[in-house]
Specification:
- The chain is an all-alpha fold.
- The chain has two domains: 116 residues, no CATH class; 118 residues, no CATH class.
- It has eleven helices and no strands.
- It starts with 15 loop residues before the first helix and ends in a 13-residue tail after the last helix.
Length: 253
Amino acid sequence: MVYNVLKTNEFVHINFHDIGRKYLANYNENDKVLFTDNELKSILSLIFAYQLHLPELEKNSKEERLKFLSEQNYYYKISKEFGRLLLENLEDYKLEWFNGLKKQSFSLVKVGSDKNLNEFVEEALIDQMNIRQWEYGKYFFQSYSNILDSCISHIKIKVNQSNKNSAKFWDNLYDKMESIKEPIENYEAVLLGFYIKSKIEKQDLNMQNYFLLGRISSQKMYYLFKREQNLKQALNELLSLDQKLKIKKGRRP
């Protein structure tokens, strides 16, 4: 099997509300809609993001799920746009499958639960995540960094050039994390660590780092959404601490 890195093709996502508004004027529950290429891809990308985060969403109330699944939610948008990226890179039988779906008509009000569309998303998109995890992690990290950037925009940062050693970097960072007042989970500590490593220490992340970020974001995106302010507070505390704390060995991800 040939592995090709995803190409970042440009696209314009169409909000499902706008798709509905286009067709509902002359629509009844027995009608079916033949969507355009862009409309179908926009719908499939929404289904992809929903399927990707379904295990964590199922643990929460309908009200909380709907907050996350809003197309205005930046966190949901990250996964939705990665799903669209997968759609723009379809090849071979997956592309033929999609082209076959384009010729079919679908119920507008039930399109999100359509069996054929969900099967396509699961087998042609979700199954790719086994090999695309690092690319998803990189895409997520670039987007999530924009959220955390507001925490450092007005802070004078002193880069610790001595932390080029990876082990020393993580040991020093965990020393700081033991001192902050904002309680954070282990995966949140790793996420903040990668942000500091990349943005503050100006060190490059590798494929293994992005793979771990992909696992965290695909499994914990809802909780990152819910705890955005907590993580911003934790980051602020970390950046305010002395960058020359005593190094302790033996604790790194």
